[in-house]
Phosphoinositide phospholipase C (Hypholoma sublateritium), 813 residues
Amino acid sequence: MDAMVADTLQKGTTMLKFADGKKKPVVCRIDPDEGWILYKSSKDVTVPIESIKELRLGAEGRYYRLQFKLPEEYEDRWITIIYIVDGTYKTLHLVAETQELFQKWSSALQKLYAIRQGLMTGLGNVESRQLVWERQYWKGADEEGDQVLDFDDIERLCKRLNVNLTPEGLRKAFDDADPLKRGYLDFAQFQSFAKVLKRRPEVEGIYANLCATNEGKFDLAAFVKFVKEFQKTKLSDSEIEAVFTKYASSPSAANLNEVPGILSYEGFSTFLMSNENTPFSEQGKPIWQDMTIPISDYYISSSHNTYLVGHQLVGVSTIEGYIRALLHSCRSVELDIYDGDKEPMVYHGKTLTSKVSLRDICNAIAKYAFVTSPYPVLISAEIHCSVPQQDTIVDIMTEIFGDSMIQAPLEGRPKIEKLPSPDALRHKFLLKAKNLYVTEQLAAAQAAKLAAKTAEQKAVAIAAEPSSSESSDNEAEVILKEGITDLKKTWKKLRGKESDAPAGEPHKAKMSFRLTSLLVYTVGVKCHGIRPDVEYAPEHIFSLSENAVNRLLKASMKDLVKHNHTHLVRIYPKGTRVNSTNYQPHRYWAAGCQVAAINWQTFDLGYRINQAMFQRNGHCGYVLKPEALRNPEKDLLSKRTQHFLDVTIISAQQLPRLRDSRGQEIIEKSVVDPYVEVYLHIPDWSHSPFLPESAKAAGARYSPSTDATTTTVSSARTVSFRTPVVKNNGFNPVWQEELCLPFDCVGDMKELIFVEFVVRQDGESEDHEPLGIYCIPLGCLEQGFHHLPLHDAQLTQHLFSTLFVQINIRDIA
């Protein structure tokens, strides 16, 4: 690591730091081994490199330079570091003194950031991860900087790691690593000590048992048996042999005497931690699903109030929300657009949130939209502007997005028979907004049907009275014609063809005709219910609050599924979620709703489920819906099955310490007493969940689905189990606890059930940030022995923390 960072950066250089409109010289330095950027301001500040979410270098930081009203000369030396501490996004803006110094900082930051990011994308890179661990903790333990560790240093390190060793056991391990009895360890000896410290008896036991069933050796035949019987692999025999050869035929640096063709314990343990044994079946896969069918048959990664990075009533509106979301492959962003002094502005209406210009947001969207995914971006806009500024919206979007903006001429637009596919819309922007003309037209059509029905009913009633049939027919006909005539007048008024205004005064249209030209495949309309007598064109999309869709699910879930096969529906959080909490989107995915909009600034369960879903399909922001929701005519939804998820929580490795509000580890007066909870989050797709008495007796906890109230949020049904607590051991706690979670499934849609593993500190409430989390769609969870990479509450992966489990799914019916 040292070689990547110039000595001058490790010792510290003076940089200009900008914050709150002020500039201040600070000395910044990089510690490559500990993985920190450090500077002294009013207090010492540490930025862990693994907490960095984005680097913006040079011209990429122009938005901030302009906000600070700084001269252009700063731009080619500009560094913006965006990172998370204590659940909050923070920005650090620095300007190097010279171009040469900027180049050194830029190169070092990008290399260190790339290495850490590579280690924080699942498993694998075992040797690199081990070296980073050794360098990081060696450097942290060597307080004197003399390149050796005495027993006191090792004792402090083990306390930091929360290693559960007796003083006698620790002394023996130290002495064994110091055969010359010098009283200290050099780096090579520390590496030997670390191997003893990180010994895994539970994995050794599994290996020994597998060898015992194969005449004491672990050859190819034993490996084939293991991956087929325990891991339930889908690999072919030739692919299995290739994996075996990779780990069996290459002796490790620590043991050059390993025999090719025999999988040693070291090779076995490396395989268990490798990407060939990932718990997520789609981990690292490119885009693999068919992207050529209509867009209505996909789930679309979506955000709500994208411009906000904080509270919904008093938060900051900024381009940052769009950049973050788009870089994580979000494909639907939201704009609330209001009149500005010169050009339209975006902010949360009737609140104290700040404002940001539509032009700045569109520039950010254009720059970042297709960095991580080529598929279309849906811009969902609530437009509260006057007609002149609606025209300005069109000018801004067509200028910035150019040919990538889907648009159509006002007249002669061909009728749309079905929606295009994501593949047909690559690198395109779709504007979704309410078309008032179409909305009123749809309302008029519904009113006409209602008037006709009323007239028919009245005619039947009149016919029953003692009068001539001719007068009855005439009266019914008059009622029907009058109703339709009134509706036609309303429609003409809206289009400006007829006006109640005094002669000579122009009619004030509600909507710019130019704006309607941008509404092609995503024409916003009001929902008039989902019934056979209500017709929507394929391009019609309506938005429903979570409360509204909950009512719709109870009334006609199958009708909603059928509607969503050919039409898009957007779901958004109810208005009383002022603290920007989220619903659980899988409840609505289970009905085929594609655009379930999430508050990306809030790291709660709904956010975690959303991120777990869209890790799939190459992380492109589009995931094909299950067949049961794409082909309602097959009636796969009538198939209901019952299962058990059997989970053995075996052990955890190097759980993170508790941290303070600055992100610093709390070591003194802090011990880790961990336990694990496993949750199954299940859509409410049946009236009677599968909950056998045996599971309840074993400790399964069931929480039914709930609708949102003024004080609580909505939730799907949940089944959960928890392990006992392991006292004072965050380094290598072992549980060997068998859990059994029952669940029912409809249409074999296991990818809409989400499994969540949460490692908690004993004594902390469930509202407190857990030690580690792993969330995954059940349909993507591989069976067998796996290490689950643990994340913090913001879904940043811990570098060295894993949970070792065994997974099995049993089918009951």
Notes: The mean pLDDT is 85. The two ends are 55 Å apart (CA to CA). The longest helix spans residues 436-463.
